[in-house]
Amino acid sequence: MTANLIQEQISKFEVTKLGDLTIRVPLCDEIPDIEIVEQKEIINKALATWLNIDGVAPLNFRLYGPAGVGKNTIVYHLARILQKELYIIRGGEELRPEEITCSPIATSSHTFEYIASPLFAAMLRGGICFFDELSRAPHSVLAPLASVLDDRRTLTSVNPGICLKAHPEFLFCAALNENAEESMMLPDFIDERTRPAIYVGFPSKEILEQILKNHVRNADNLWFKVFIKQFKNETISPRNAVKLLQYAYRLYCHEKNGTTNHAINDYEAAKYLDRAKKDILSANENNTDFGSKESKEEISVVSELLH
């Protein structure tokens, strides 16, 4: 990446002075306008965890569950409720330690800029830091979190020589998939500092139907009834359910020359859903958030045999 391109990307960051250092701090993430359906118990647990009582700092929690069940949506909703800025870090094997602290970036052959991470920004401004896919980050990358998530609430960045004390209103949460949680893939110091661990599971068919109605607003009610009937014996995540119904409905609209006024019957809707299922499953055959309970059990048995 060229120096000009780097400069262009960081030019939108806010310039902040910390002592003698000038640091560029990223702006908060845009919160998607996604309506949440029936997660009151989980929302209450999260809000209770974040209460600041008698001057004692809030706790840090993590959400875990199957892929696609709405863990991120819950965090977005919490940020809206609390009217707080949200800063997101996404875990991955390529993530480096300085990317969760503060890193120097060469903007020319002779000058450097110090770029703050989303975690740094949340601690500085008193926002929410959401570490998505926490278990996918290398353990070495997570080391700076030890002092952030305990009573010290400080972030140390060795390169610029900064020890940042968190704003009193700083909040932290994380998310990971169910298999990572059950396999205990988190290092002990992170496991202990991100509790409670709150489970987010598959919704009931009634809740799933309401989620579908929120995302496919122009479809006739018949589509939702046929969908629920057709997938009543399958475990399907809201994410893939929405994807599948949206695709089926688009196929139908396209083949009816873009009109939605054509009267559709149960058989025809089921046919479009079946066509959509084949394409969605083909593209997501390795995705664990879609499939019957029986197929998941078969995959689990095969995996154990291979290992």
Automatic annotation (TrEMBL):
GO molecular function: ATP binding; ATP hydrolysis activity
Recorded superkingdom: Bacteria
Domain ATPase dynein-related AAA: 63-190
Membrane-crossing residue ranges in chain numbering: none
UniProt cross-references to InterPro entries, sorted A to Z: ATPase_dyneun-rel_AAA, CbbQ/NirQ/NorQ/GpvN, P-loop_NTPase
Pfam family, one: AAA_5
Annotated protein name in UniProt: ATPase dynein-related AAA domain-containing protein
Taxonomic lineage of the native organism: Bacteria, Candidatus Fischeribacteriota
